[in-house]
Amino acid sequence: MKSIEFYYDFGSPTAYLAWTQMQKADKARFTIEYRPVLLGGIFKATENKPPGTVKAKANWMFEDIKMYANNYNVNFAM
Question: What is the model's pTM?
Answer without folding.
Answer: 0.80
